[in-house]
Amino acid sequence: MKFNLRTLSALLLIGASLAAACGSSSPASPAAKMKGDAAAGKTKFDSTCVSCHGPDAKGIPGLGKDMTTSTFIKSTGDDALVAFITKGRPASDPANTTKVDMPPKGGNPSFSEKDLYDVVAFLRTLNK
């Protein structure tokens, strides 16, 4: 079977259209739809976040904020919270009201993106 350039282009265009219509997604899409597991998130919170936010997530004065009443957590989407925790917030950031570093990944570099979604799922159970 012999194809000319026009036929080949048309076939490629049709194939791309079919892939898009069938729900083909970009590599970034799964993260945008990732859901965390609150029970796993509590375990991760207990192993890392408690040092500043306390075992009840009500914060430790001079270290971490109360996460149970946080309007920041309540008004920020899961993807944005994961991005925030991933990056952290230095003490020099004007939005940092404690003036204490919030280290990237809460100081636990081994946390994966899934781990962070789990922590966020746990925080959602506290902040209603």
Keywords for this entry:
single chain, 128 residues, mainly alpha, Cytochrome Bc1 Complex, Chain D, domain 2
Cα distance spanning the termini: 63 Å
Number of helices: 6
CATH topology: Cytochrome Bc1 Complex, Chain D, domain 2
Evaluate the radius of gyration: 21 Å
Classify the helix fraction into a percent range.
Answer: 40-55%
Count of domain modules? 1
CATH class: Mainly Alpha
Report the uncertain regions: 7-13, 15-31
Can you give a write-up of this model?
- By secondary structure, this protein is mainly α.
- The protein has a single domain (34-126), classed as Cytochrome c-like domain (Cytochrome Bc1 Complex, Chain D, domain 2, Orthogonal Bundle).
- The protein is 52% helix and 0% strand.
- It has six helices and no strands.
- It has helices at residues 5-21, 29-32, 38-53, 71-75, 78-87, 113-126.
- Helix 3 (38-53) packs across helix 6 (113-126) and helix 5 packs across helix 6.
- The longest helix has 17 residues, at 5-21.
- The radius of gyration is 21 Å and the shape is globular.
- The N and C termini lie far apart (63 Å).
